[in-house]
Q: What sequence folds into this?
């Protein structure tokens, strides 16, 4: 209800919104703001960076929580498992600001641990944060580090609902650990996997603004400028309510179309669907 | 089920809110003020000078204080039309222009009810000039701050190293280069390690200003006789014509010089990626001083325990015999805009302006910066003289910012007030550092003034500015690293034009002429 | 054959062990780093001298955090909002999730779509603000508890769980025993779904615990502010001076900013992190499905 009642706000994207006149009273601008965005000088670069980053993130990070959950599920000792799990999801709580400043401390070309190690192995010092080619990898790696443990909790919960009888039956059939994973655990996880995959595809265009912005510098901008950070910068120059509303709506429409497409695909292929 | 539950909860909440609301205050007028406050500042209800100002105006002020997240809060309040009676600090020109119908033109009110503010405008016409909006109205009032230097930036050089190496302070770029090279080669900090950073500055990683922000190497542009205005826009006026420094040959020359330094390893290799704290920490290492030449607000702030090793370096010249400049901008350092504004939601504008006028009085202004009388400011002979009480732990800033609004306070610090106030040593030191640059001030007319653009102008420039400055920052860093400025230059200028630099020039020119009209 | 399985199992366990070891090392070291950094001289941390043990040990960061008088009030508020908000979240998420998981529920498709649509399209902050204002929730503890209690993402997760773990035969069997839908839900579905309910509870707790933006926008009263707002304020105390507004001594304070940054992580996350071991018992294998079936 709190989502639908304010829905008339999307009108802002089509008007010259002025707070004084209000949403329903502002003059109509039609597609002016959409047009401006699509034809802006930055558009294609922004689009490529945004999609590149989020696809990379999705592909690299999606399977890991599943593997981690399967792993945890195999650990027998409850105390040990609890400890490892708690540690693994702890980074989830670290704020982005701190993650970024830790990266800059650990990756410093002169005093960072990473460069000191690679130099002692005969490598050359690299200023990772300055290289556009490293930006995406750093972003994705730090994301994996932060959220894999946390994301595995969902899968772990699903695994814990498996009927123990199934395992017993499998053992009687002589199935080893690998077969148990393939025959029992993966099928049990399948619906969750599909649903999360669909949802994640839908949010592909929304890259984390804060981390991207904090990781930006004059040298890596060519690959680190994404739609969210660009909109923020335009907003700094002027309070363009309508312009940012238009871009927001634009990205959401794309997300939704993507989601619907993947959903359709999943339904055709596997009979699973969000709706 | 969702819905009925919500309604029930909402009803309960409203009932609770009604119970919690303060009992009616009788006849006393009360206003709601939304204020951006520094995170150090204590609850405004506990600050005596603010209470006295309100009492003198017979008002009760309900403070809504925002110490974190101001931008978001402000945007929502403005856009939703759920306005307070007045804003204290934190508004930008755009906030006001785009919502101009929501703000009260203060000019007639000031005229009738505000003697202190009127006096400020008479004594400092610039204070009024920077506050008038393009539609000719006065929607907000400025703040004029006490004891401010002329420049935001000082260039610091490690005097101890210079002395040790038997060198003189450089006066030209060539000499500067030689000094930097010696700093790198000769281990001046004597720890046997090549850990000296000959040149360092704040290049704005993780912010939006690149090297255009404060404490930047771009102050060296003064070597070529041009300086920027500290607005992050890199703009100036030459003979009445507005010019963007990043599109000028002098800028190209400076980039070449910096590239030469970079190639010789004289610039901090992390300069473009370090965040502010890392930059500070490198200079303040406990075991050894490491930085040769850099920029900052003051030596004590920038170098902490090594501060006394450093001297303020006067600007160097591009060629021997040339007269260099140093960026100064008295208006931008001393004055702040939009310190206070009254909204149309206010039912008591007269009482409100009387209260605001109290804040601009001499006695309130000195307290608004340094803290309340008698604890933090001593008033001798009932205001004949003021003495700022030095902080017991030596940390004057903490004392100020905890007990006063400081840069968020609407105040007027006149020359007369400064003349009868004694200040603590930290302020004296900063003013002394600044005095080195008195001789190198640019022609006042060449400094781009604090102007306001109309909403149409803002709208027209918004995308151009975003694109242009991003491109400028990118190219600046790239050229220093790769040294390709000469071959890229023509293409760079063409690209800037394509992005809308001519539009920016036109509108900046118009605003400049308006200001001096 | 049995032998092959044995070696297969062994290899599997070896991989399990390796993954656990890598996870622990890769994750634990940076965490350890945060802990020691929160006790170390910030200049030493920044110049890369702190790796294995704290240097220039100091409690200054924590002192600065705990001397803030609003901190404890913030803690209290946050605990209230988190506890109440998380239970409220469960109450409005689980029942619809269950309803939508039932294939015999006729509005299933349109309602699912209705919910998912909101994940992508919303009116934006400002209209939402106006609606909340009109309903009268602004500036009260209720807004922190009630707003965003329902979360589509969580609902979908719960729904998927119900779909695959509460077979319709179970309901049929229960029906024959004369069990109504409500009773079935309370007596059978909920106990069987402890794992997913705990997960969603955990999600809610973490979400509410970290809630900052709602408080910033909708709360006015200093006394209502949750922990996160207070912590941001403490963090910002050291951030303002890069605009050239400070003077002497500002840098010693700016350096404290790092110390405080690391300290705040510890202060604000330890309470939520210790929650997991308590919830863990609900993740027991095969909770009761076997029992119900048998």
A:
């Amino acid at each position: 209800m709190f989502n639908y009642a304010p829905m008339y706000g999307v009108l802002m994207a089509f008007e010259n919104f002025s707070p004084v006149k209000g949403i329903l009273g502002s003059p109509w601008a039609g597609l002016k703001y959409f047009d401006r965005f699509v034809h802006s000088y930055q558009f294609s670069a922004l689009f490529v960076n945004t999609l590149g980053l989020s696809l990379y993130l999705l592909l690299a990070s999606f399977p890991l929580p599943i593997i981690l959950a399967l792993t945890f599920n195999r650990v027998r000792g409850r105390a040990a498992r609890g400890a490892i799990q708690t540690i693994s999801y702890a980074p989830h709580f670290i704020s982005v600001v701190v993650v970024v400043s830790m990266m800059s401390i650990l990756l410093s070309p002169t005093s960072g641990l990473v460069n000191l190690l690679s130099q002692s192995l005969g490598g050359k010092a690299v200023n990772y944060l300055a290289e556009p080619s490293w930006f995406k990898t750093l972003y994705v790696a730090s994301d994996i580090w932060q959220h894999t443990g946390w994301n595995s909790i969902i899968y772990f919960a699903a695994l814990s609902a498996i009927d123990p009888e199934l395992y017993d039956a499998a053992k009687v059939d002589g199935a080893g650990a690998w077969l148990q994973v393939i025959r029992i655990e993966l099928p049990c996880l399948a619906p969750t996997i599909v649903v999360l995959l669909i949802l994640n595809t839908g949010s592909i265009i929304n890259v984390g603004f804060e981390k991207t912005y904090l990781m930006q510098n004059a040298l890596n901008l060519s690959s680190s400028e994404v739609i969210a950070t660009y909109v923020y910068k335009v907003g700094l120059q002027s309070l363009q309510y309508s312009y940012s509303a238009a871009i927001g709506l634009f990205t959401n429409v794309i997300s939704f179309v993507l989601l619907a497409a993947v959903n359709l695909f999943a339904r055709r292929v596997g009979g699973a669907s969000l709706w | 089920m969702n819905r009925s539950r919500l309604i029930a909860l909402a009803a309960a909440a409203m009932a609770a809110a009604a119970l919690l609301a303060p009992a009616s205050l009788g006849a006393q007028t009360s206003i709601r003020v939304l204020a951006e406050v520094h995170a150090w500042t204590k609850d405004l209800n506990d600050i005596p000078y603010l209470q006295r100002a309100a009492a003198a105006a017979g008002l009760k002020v309900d403070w809504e204080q925002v110490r974190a997240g101001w931008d978001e809060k402000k945007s929502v309040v403005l856009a939703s039309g759920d306005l307070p009676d007045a804003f204290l600090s934190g508004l930008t020109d755009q906030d006001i222009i785009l919502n101009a119908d929501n703000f009260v033109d203060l000019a007639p009110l000031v005229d009738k009810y505000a003697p202190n503010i009127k006096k400020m405008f008479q004594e400092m016409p610039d204070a009024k000039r920077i506050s008038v909006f393009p539609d000719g109205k006065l929607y907000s009032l400025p703040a004029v701050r006490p004891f401010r230097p002329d420049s935001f930036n000082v260039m610091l050089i490690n005097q101890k190293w210079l002395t040790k190496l038997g060198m003189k302070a450089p006066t030209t770029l060539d000499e500067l280069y030689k000094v930097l090279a010696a700093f790198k080669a000769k281990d001046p900090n004597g720890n046997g390690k090549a850990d000296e950073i000959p040149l360092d500055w704040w290049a704005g990683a993780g912010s939006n200003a690149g090297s255009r922000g404060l404490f930047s190497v771009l102050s060296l542009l003064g070597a070529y006789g041009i300086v920027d205005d500290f607005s992050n826009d890199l703009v100036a006026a030459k003979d009445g014509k507005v010019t963007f420094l990043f599109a000028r040959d002098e800028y190209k020359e400076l980039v070449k010089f910096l590239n030469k330094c970079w190639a010789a390893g004289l610039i901090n290799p992390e300069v473009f990626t370090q965040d502010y704290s890392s930059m500070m920490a490198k200079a303040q290492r406990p075991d050894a001083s490491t930085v040769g030449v850099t920029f900052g607000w003051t030596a004590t702030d920038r170098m902490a325990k090594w501060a006394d090793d450093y001297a303020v370096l006067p600007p160097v010249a591009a060629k021997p015999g040339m007269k260099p400049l140093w960026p100064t901008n008295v208006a931008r350092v001393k004055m702040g805009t939009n310190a206070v504004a009254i909204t149309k939601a206010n039912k008591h504008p007269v009482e409100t302006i009387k209260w605001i006028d109290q804040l601009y009085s001499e006695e309130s202004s000195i307290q608004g910066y340094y803290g309340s009388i008698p604890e933090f400011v001593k008033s001798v002979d009932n205001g004949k003289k003021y003495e700022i009480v030095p902080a017991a732990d030596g940390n004057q800033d903490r004392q100020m910012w905890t007990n006063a609004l400081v840069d968020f306070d609407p105040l007027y610090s006149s020359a007369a007030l400064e003349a009868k106030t004694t200040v603590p040593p930290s302020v004296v030191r900063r003013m002394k550092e600044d005095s080195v640059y008195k001789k190198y001030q640019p022609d006042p007319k060449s400094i781009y003034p604090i102007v306001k653009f109309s909403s149409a102008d803002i709208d027209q420039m918004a995308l151009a500015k975003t694109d242009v400055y991003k491109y400028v920052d990118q190219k600046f860093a790239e050229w220093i690293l790769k040294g390709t400025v000469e071959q890229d230059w023509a293409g760079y200028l063409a690209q800037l034009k394509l992005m809308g630099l001519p539009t920016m020039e036109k509108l900046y020119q118009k605003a400049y002429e308006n200001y001096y009209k | 054959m049995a032998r092959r399985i044995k070696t297969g199992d062994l290899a599997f366990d070896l991989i399990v062990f390796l993954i656990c070891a890598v996870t622990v090392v890769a994750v634990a070291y940076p965490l350890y780093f945060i802990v020691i950094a929160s006790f170390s001289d910030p200049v030493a941390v920044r110049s890369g001298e702190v790796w294995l043990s704290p240097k220039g040990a100091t409690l200054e960061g924590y002192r600065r955090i705990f001397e803030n008088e609003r901190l404890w009030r913030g803690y209290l508020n946050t605990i209230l909002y988190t506890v109440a908000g998380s239970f409220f979240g469960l109450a409005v998420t689980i029942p619809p999730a269950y309803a939508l998981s039932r294939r015999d529920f006729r509005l299933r498709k349109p309602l699912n779509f209705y919910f998912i649509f909101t994940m992508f399209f919303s009116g934006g902050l400002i209209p939402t603000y106006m609606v909340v204002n009109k309903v009268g929730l602004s500036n009260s503890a209720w807004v922190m508890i009630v707003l965003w209690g329902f979360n589509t993402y969580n609902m979908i997760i719960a729904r998927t769980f119900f779909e695959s773990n509460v077979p319709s035969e179970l309901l049929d069997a229960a029906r024959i025993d004369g069990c109504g839908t409500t009773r079935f839900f309370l007596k059978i579905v909920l106990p069987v779904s402890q794992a997913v309910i705990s997960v969603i509870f955990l999600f809610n707790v973490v979400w509410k615990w970290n809630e900052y933006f709602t408080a910033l926008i909708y709360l006015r009263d200093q006394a209502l502010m949750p922990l996160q707002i207070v912590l941001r304020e403490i963090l910002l105390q050291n951030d303002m001076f890069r605009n050239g507004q400070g003077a002497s001594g500002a840098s010693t304070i700016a350096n404290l900013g790092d110390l405080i940054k690391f300290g705040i992580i510890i202060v604000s996350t330890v309470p939520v992190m210790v929650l997991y071991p308590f919830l863990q018992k609900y993740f027991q294998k095969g909770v009761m499905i076997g029992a119900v079936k048998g």
